[in-house]
TrEMBL record, chains A, B:
One of its GO terms (biological process) is respiratory electron transport chain. Keywords: FAD, Flavoprotein, Oxidoreductase. This is D-2-hydroxyglutarate dehydrogenase. The keyword Flavoprotein applies. Its cofactor is FAD. Residues 39-218 form the FAD-binding PCMH-type domain. Belongs to the FAD-binding oxidoreductase/transferase type 4 family. GO terms for molecular function: FAD binding; oxidoreductase activity.
Amino acid sequence: MAGLPEAFLAAIQADFPPDFLSLDAGDLATFGRDWTKVHAPSPGAIAFPRTTDEVSRLLRLCSAHAVPVVPSGGRTGLAGGAVAARGELVVSLDRMRHMGPVDMLGGTVRVQAGAVTEAVHQHCAAQGLTWPVDFASKGSSQVGGNIATNAGGVKVIRYGLTRQWVLGLQVVLANGDVLEVGGALEKNNTGLDLRQLFIGSEGTLGIITEATLKLTRLPGHLDVLLFAVADLAGVLALFREARMGGALAPGAGLEPGHGPFTVTAYEFFTERCLDRVKRHRKVRNPLSAPSDYYVLMEVENAHRDALEAWVASLFERELVTDGTLAQHSSQAAELWTLREGISESLSATGLPHKNDVALPISELSGFCAGLDDLFARRYPGWEICLFGHIGDGNLHINVMKPDDLTREQFLARTHEADHDIFALVKAHHGSISAEHGIGLLKKDFLGYTRAPAELALMRAVKRTLDPQGLLNPGKILDA
Amino acid sequence: MAGLPEAFLAAIQADFPPDFLSLDAGDLATFGRDWTKVHAPSPGAIAFPRTTDEVSRLLRLCSAHAVPVVPSGGRTGLAGGAVAARGELVVSLDRMRHMGPVDMLGGTVRVQAGAVTEAVHQHCAAQGLTWPVDFASKGSSQVGGNIATNAGGVKVIRYGLTRQWVLGLQVVLANGDVLEVGGALEKNNTGLDLRQLFIGSEGTLGIITEATLKLTRLPGHLDVLLFAVADLAGVLALFREARMGGALAPGAGLEPGHGPFTVTAYEFFTERCLDRVKRHRKVRNPLSAPSDYYVLMEVENAHRDALEAWVASLFERELVTDGTLAQHSSQAAELWTLREGISESLSATGLPHKNDVALPISELSGFCAGLDDLFARRYPGWEICLFGHIGDGNLHINVMKPDDLTREQFLARTHEADHDIFALVKAHHGSISAEHGIGLLKKDFLGYTRAPAELALMRAVKRTLDPQGLLNPGKILDA
């Protein structure tokens, strides 16, 4: 690996503040990768701009010296999108955390890309508003990274993906030009919506430096429920009931469609996941007996009596085998821990290989049956921990390393298994990544989910915006 | 104007059904334009495909013979996007109206692009679901056209634009290739989201032939209210209250953010608009006295007592000067007529010149003051009828032809006035088209709202997807 060009480093020294660039070994290790640990970090240097103008001048310089760039946010990604493994210059947004005043009337806020998700939540909560992009890594993840990866999370069923909550973007292009697209506008039909190119582009088309975020009211009262169901069909049958907001509950006295609540989360996990959480977090199962499948459901603005009547009717109709409704907020938090603790507990108790697939909800049963069959035939004895945002069709498939394989053997076998899994995803009209993105880790598999004509179009857009191929090279696809 | 090439017509005759192409004068006149009347229709022929394969083979033929194409849906557009004024071949989706079964579990439906909006509503309502894209022209507008124009409407404040309700698209490209993007997936983060290129592209990048639509529950109980307020500041102050769902109403006994209702529409209009509706539709003002400004508000799932307490508090706090809450559905429909009848009544009682601009909500006051000042200075005596979806920052500015100007004089003056209006829009960080789109009518003004770098990028994408420039040529921008 060659270092950064001398002339480039000299220009940085001449034109930027003394603390602009870091070659510190600790910084190189920290800022050279995200939460994935597959690739070793090896950046050429880390730049810490404070302003859009600095980012602009930096990219102009990178373009002149053909220096490849890896944009870097909170580095909580799970696809290697922020990994700098080949001597690239990392551009960290860490110092660009300014948040403008909340526009109460318009329900918007303008922030720099390095603003941390949770800080945005706190900034807006005082006004009774929120940016409803929410997930476990909110304490580290940054707005720019959320947008660049079109982040998902546990509230997508209620609020949609990050894409829906971005009104305007300021983006620095590969040549240093600053593009302002959108603005504080809900409606703007004036040709191609350029925001959409950058949202989910994983830093390959430009560096997002500022965003105008769309806000919504803080949610109303939330109720959290945990149910045990016999099988995946039961998970889906219960989902159908929940989606109608309990409107079909006998005795609820409500018209169809006029249900007593709105579903804000519908998550499922298996006993294998819960078992790992119990071991790692020393928590207990709040239900009286283990079950193969669990559903965690959160609902907003429930009429309490109607909700309880609905739950009772689920038991009567044998749609659930057990269940509990949190009676206060600490109980609700305990139930959430069972679900949100899974990822961490899997990593703490073993070596998981992660996949994050999406299926049309109507294909979930068939897909999961096929998955069981596939592993029984090809990878017998492997432990599969299945959980996810099933209300969005999003399954997290975690394969745990068997004791009799080394780490290297396991990674080689899972690469093989991924081809099998993704062939099954394709057969069921799914996506190989629901929310984590492609980055480096899923690049080899992109053809399972995007047709050649799509890939050609993606490459054409990439060439138009980044003709030198300097922005996050090798991520999503090779040029 | 030269006709279509003989060899092209011969190939159509050889390879397509006998009723595929129409040269009938009535069809040419009907299918050669949309609701705009500025350009005279002059298409070369009208094609009526029944299948995606026919569209694909047709576009391959058009590409081979360099025949320009105008895609045509329900032709209810207001920007001239579906006008064929230069001998183009119109491709009507009228025969592609098939609707697949509603997927209850996934909350989706797959339809052909020619399915009429209202037919989709009826198709889904039986299952308690709806595609919440809704506007006055729903009886004619088609799904493909709605998507190609990213249609808006009166429920955007609640549900967002069409863009949010499209999961998958089938698009025929200029060379005849059929692209399938998305699918019945809520989440799919696998590189560039190509759906977004086609949504709002006004037929310039491909012809949408099928779509998988995202559905939602039918709304719960709706209440409709009409208020009189003194001025625009009052319209906005009331909006702030409504947006918080009445949560700040003294005595409602609710926490901030836990309001008793969800706003599904927040519309305003002026006395001048109401006066035209009263003259044309022979309706009366349900309030006791005229007011300069009116607000029509629709709310969902209101707690009736809390809603009435909120309304009472608006009077007490002098946030409104008068108001009424519809007591039953026919009264609600009467209130809606006052707002939805405006467009038709303006056209029936005079010659309106329409603009459809969007402003950040926080800029609305300043913009409207500037507009008043502009017309007082430059166009004294002109009647401006102002109404719109103010909750989305969307103003419909209708300038009525003064009696002392001919139609031609008026159109020339309004073209001049548009430059003044759009300069004001630009100064207030707005958009020259909130929902109608650019088409032919606003093309000359696009530079007021999109920067040169944006226009260059739009042109680059257009050249990539349609190198011959055959798809809806001259719409949005010249190649």
